[in-house]
Amino acid sequence: MTDDEPCCRICFDTADSSANPLFRPCHCAGTSAWVHVECLDTWRRTSVNKRSFYECDACKFKYKFGARVGDQIFVARLLSTAGAIHALALCLGSLIGWASSALGLTGMHHARFVVGDWFGPGTLRGADRDNAFGHVVALVAIAAGLCIAFYWIYSSLEA
């Protein structure tokens, strides 16, 4: 074991695997920073201190519950593949294209839908071509909302 190599603060093992990764659950630094997922879960269940279940005994940082770190790493790796990025771009582009068509920005007076007579005879009424500025603002708001949603999902995976 070297000084630079992370070591579990509970079992003192340096092994890092995808099934039981070393991670930093709190704001502790130095030799107390790293811990295995299973070691921390065991500590949280068996500690005499009841607060150990939801916060670090040393720095008092409240643990963030949610998916296991291994699951988050899997999802992050899956989302970083080229196929996933192309699929997200295709979905986002399709949604923006559909929204621009529905709002009348494609040059049609009425956007056609497959929903039958729900909006009348298969058209969305009220898409006014003369109010293009409002439609552009709506399209930008939709795109910005989707970008914010993807950023929120990505940042919650990192945490």
TrEMBL record:
Keywords (A to Z) from UniProt: Membrane, Metal-binding, Transmembrane, Transmembrane helix, Zinc, Zinc-finger
Domain RING-CH-type residue range list: 1-66
Pfam families in the cross-refs: RINGv (PF12906)
Transmembrane segments: 74-99, 132-154
Database matches in PROSITE patterns: ZF_RING_CH
Gene Ontology molecular-function annotations: zinc ion binding
Superkingdom of the source species: Eukaryota
CDD domains attached to this UniProt entry: RING_CH-C4HC3_MARCH
Protein name in the entry: RING-CH-type domain-containing protein
